[in-house]
């Protein structure tokens, strides 16, 4: 097992990783920007190293400064968290060159899975259900037109090296196709440095359901259930729940088996998430995420597992400590991402927290790095806390979440708490009658 882990991240996920490491008796090194000098993750770590100024490019994304911190700290492993360099194969190679273990998949796997259209093709060739679409990326307009005709409109253009919905274009008829293709290519090149575009059948009203997997270096692969992430705003997940309230048991079982099979086909190692769309009847693979995700606590609270400890154990060469037969859902769980933003307009609301009271009680978990007097920086994302609750069923979880949102006091900044109160009391949410368009197209009435 590792002696010292450097956490190449900040905020609540850095605190989360430090907690897991401490429970394993592993020393921790926090890295921080000048903006984060007084942050919680710095206080909780055994050691801390300043890696640069506030802008992420000059600190949390600065490969050289991180490399220096890795060397100076004499750590033997690095956990990247999510975001920043967590899916950057160059960072994995830097860790390998410095003789420290990157807690995640290896660089070669990351590179092999970076092109979403290639991943889809590999899985389709191995019998995994994927959204019907092009065979890999599309390089010329004739293939584009032919593929769209074959698939049938509406189609969705996607950036093969993209993420978070950037470079996506819905095309409803032939006349829009070429211009949409060219503008998607331009946006993909500008955002990701790669203009490869692939095409899929557009699924109009999907649920967005992802499966958590764990795979060790000894060929063991398990799933840790699914998470329903359908409630999103402009590709930002707002609320996640598990088990998905729209899956029949038989479908759920097939989804889990499909995800573990896909993981084996791809030779994936460590913690990963496979994203699917569900159209009410069938599910289709869309992409794989090669990092621990923001919403991992949802799975931890349904099944009583510690995914970060599992990641660390896998990276240290241990066999998975959890048997698939032990993965039995015990609760219904809902997570709300509490952001420092205006609850109507959603623009960020940085500033200092003047007063803070965190909810508690049975079945309540809060993952946060803020405390009273914390300053919410405009330099980083606006998520200040994850409020995760479990209940014996969905209704108990929903009522418990509402009780916690009522109890939650954050004064000095605006937060999205009022937004969640409205969502959780809406008929559409209560009756599971919504899809990925609900927030953008209906609830907020804005595209
Ligand atoms: C889709 C889709 C419908 N049809 N693909 C891709 C990025 C991932 N995070 C969500 N993505 C989607 N892919 C096909 N063929 C719907 C989504 C999607 C979504 C799309 C637009 C706006 C918000 C969305 C929220 C969840 C899923």
Fill in the keyword field for this structure.
15 helices; single chain; binds ligand MV4; Rossmann fold; 34% helix; 447 residues; Dna Ligase, domain 1; 5-stranded parallel β-sheet; D-amino Acid Aminotransferase, Chain A, domain 1
How much of the polypeptide forms β-strand, as a percent range? 25-35%
Main sheet characteristics: 8 strands, antiparallel
| Bulk shape | globular
CATH homology group of the largest domain: ATP-grasp fold, B domain
Ligand roster: ligand MV4
Strand order of the largest sheet: 13-12-9-10-11-14-19-17
Number of helices: 15
Tell me the total number of β-strands. Answer: 20
Flag low-confidence runs.
Answer: none
Judged by helices, strands and strand pairing, the structural class is alpha+beta
- The overall pLDDT average reads 96
The level-1 CATH class of the largest domain: Alpha Beta
Measured as a percent range, the helix fraction is 25-40%
Number of domains: 3
CATH topology of the largest domain: D-amino Acid Aminotransferase, Chain A, domain 1
Distance separating the two termini: 50 Å
Report on the structure:
The protein has 447 residues and is α+β, with helices and mostly antiparallel strands. It has 3 domains: 4-103, Rossmann fold (3-Layer(aba) Sandwich); 132-201, ATP-grasp fold, A domain (Dna Ligase, domain 1), CATH 3.30.1490.20; 207-442, ATP-grasp fold, B domain (D-amino Acid Aminotransferase, Chain A, domain 1), CATH 3.30.470.20. It contains 15 helices and 20 strands. The chain has helices at 11-23, 40-44, 63-73, 89-97, 107-112, 116-125, 141-151, 174-192, 249-266, 296-303, 307-315, 394-407, 417-424, 427-430, 438-443, and strands at 4-7, 27-33, 47-52, 77-79, 101-102, 155-159, 169-171, 197-201, 207-215, 221-233, 236-242, 270-278, 283-289, 332-339, 351-352, 355-357, 364-368, 375-376, 383-391, 409-411. The strands form 5 sheets. Strands 13-12-9-10-11-14-19-17 form an 8-stranded antiparallel β-sheet. Strands 3-2-1-4-5 form a 5-stranded parallel β-sheet. Helix 2 (40-44) links the parallel strand 2 and strand 3. The chain is globular, with a radius of gyration of 21 Å. The mean pLDDT is 96.
């Amino acid at each position: 097992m590792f002696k010292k882990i450097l956490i190449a991240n900040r905020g609540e996920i850095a605190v989360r990783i430090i907690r897991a490491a401490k429970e394993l008796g592993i020393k921790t090194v926090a890295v921080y920007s000048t903006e984060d000098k007084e942050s919680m993750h710095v206080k909780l770590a055994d050691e801390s190293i300043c890696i640069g100024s506030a802008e992420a490019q000059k600190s949390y994304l600065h490969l050289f400064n991180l490399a220096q911190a890795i060397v100076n700290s004499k750590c033997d492993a690095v956990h990247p968290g999510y975001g920043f360099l967590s899916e950057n194969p160059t960072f994995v190679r830097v860790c390998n060159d410095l003789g420290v273990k990157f807690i995640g998949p290896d660089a070669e796997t990351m590179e092999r899975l970076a092109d979403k259209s290639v991943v889809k093709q590999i899985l389709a060739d191995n019998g995994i259900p994927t959204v019907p679409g092009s065979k890999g990326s599309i390089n010329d307009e004739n293939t584009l037109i032919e593929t769209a005709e074959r698939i049938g409109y509406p189609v969705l253009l996607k950036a093969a090296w993209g993420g978070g919905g950037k470079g996506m274009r819905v095309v409803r008829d032939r006349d829009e196709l070429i211009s949409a293709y060219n503008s998607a290519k331009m946006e993909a090149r500008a955002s990701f440095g790669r203009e490869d575009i692939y095409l899929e059948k557009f699924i109009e009203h999907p649920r967005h359901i992802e499966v958590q997997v764990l795979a060790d270096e000894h060929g063991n692969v398990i799933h840790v259930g699914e998470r329903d992430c359908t409630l999103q705003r402009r590709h930002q997940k707002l609320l996640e729940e598990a088990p998905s309230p729209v899956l029949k048991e038989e479908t759920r079982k097939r989804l889990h088996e499909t995800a573990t099979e896909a993981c084996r086909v791809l030779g994936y190692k460590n913690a990963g998430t496979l994203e699917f769309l569900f159209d009410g009847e069938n599910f289709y693979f869309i992409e794989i995420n090669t990092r621990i995700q923001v919403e991992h606590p949802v799975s931890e609270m349904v099944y009583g597992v510690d995914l970060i400890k599992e990641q660390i154990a896998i990276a240290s060469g241990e066999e998975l400590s959890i048997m698939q037969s032990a993965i039995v859902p015990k609760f219904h769980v809902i997570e709300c991402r509490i952001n420092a933003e205006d609850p109507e307009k959603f623009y960020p609301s940085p500033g200092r927290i003047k007063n803070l009271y965190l909810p508690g009680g049975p079945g309540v978990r809060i993952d946060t790095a803020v405390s009273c007097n914390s300053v919410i920086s405009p330099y980083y994302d606006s998520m200040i806390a994850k409020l995760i609750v479990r209940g014996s069923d969905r209704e108990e979880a929903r009522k418990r979440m509402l009780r916690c949102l009522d109890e939650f006091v954050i004064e000095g900044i605006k937060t999205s708490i009022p937004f969640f109160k409205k969502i959780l009391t809406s008929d559409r949410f209560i009756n599971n009658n919504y899809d990925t368009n609900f927030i953008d197209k209906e609830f907020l009435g804005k595209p």
